[in-house]
Specification:
Elements lengths: L6 H8 L3 H23 L2 H17 L7 H37 L1 H6 L1 H16 L3 H12 L4 H8 L3 H20 L5
Helix pairs in contact: 1-2, 2-3, 2-4, 3-4, 6-9, 7-9, 8-9
Length: 182
């Protein structure tokens, strides 16, 4: 299944041959879709993103003269679409937070001092995390980076990023759960 595409298939792909496109599709679709599922956590979203990448590939078929170029294009295309997906999700969350703020404006004005205390407690709890946990937590939640991006930046395995994130969340739950202000 990991056989390289032959020269005839690549040439056919460049010329828009549907059979050649099907060969490329069969070789890469499942691999790419499963990689996207890992990044977005939704099979439906992964299928949409993967389909968009293959559509973009097909629209540019004359440009591709090698399998490695096809593969790089697909993975780059998918990576960019996953980043855009998370940016959209982040904007949705921001909009929901803003909506909640507007709806609760009166209540928040009356309880502004509580809000300040809660934020101070949260900040203090985050700053008291072990250094690696704190660094990973801030990169994930403040900077909005993906675990893969954090792993690349810190040059650590992605599994360690997940472990440090879980550890930070557990510590914060314990610390903030004991705080009477929350």
């Amino acid at each position: 299944m990991d056989n390289k595409l032959d020269r005839e298939t690549i040439t056919g792909f460049q010329q828009g041959d549907p059979t050649a496109f099907q060969a490329v599709y069969r070789k890469y679709y499942v691999k790419i879709k499963m990689a996207v599922v890992d990044k977005v956590g939704s099979m439906a979203e992964a299928e949409d993103i993967t389909a968009e990448a293959f559509k973009a590939l097909y629209e540019r078929h004359p440009q591709f003269d090698s399998e490695s170029y096809i593969r790089r294009f697909l993975y780059t295309c998918v990576r960019n679409r996953v980043i855009n997906y998370w940016k959209r999700k982040q904007l949705q969350i921001i909009r929901l937070i803003e909506l909640g703020r507007r709806m609760n404006d009166d209540a928040l004005q009356n309880n502004e001092f509580i809000k300040i205390e809660v934020l101070e407690a949260l900040h203090k709890a985050i700053e008291s995390l072990p250094e690696e946990c704190r660094k990973v937590f801030k990169m994930l939640f403040y900077d909005g980076l993906t675990p893969a991006e954090v792993a690349d930046i810190l040059q650590i395995p992605i599994k360690k990023v997940y472990r440090l994130k879980a550890m930070a969340q557990k510590i914060l739950r314990i610390k903030l759960g004991d705080d009477d202000r929350l």
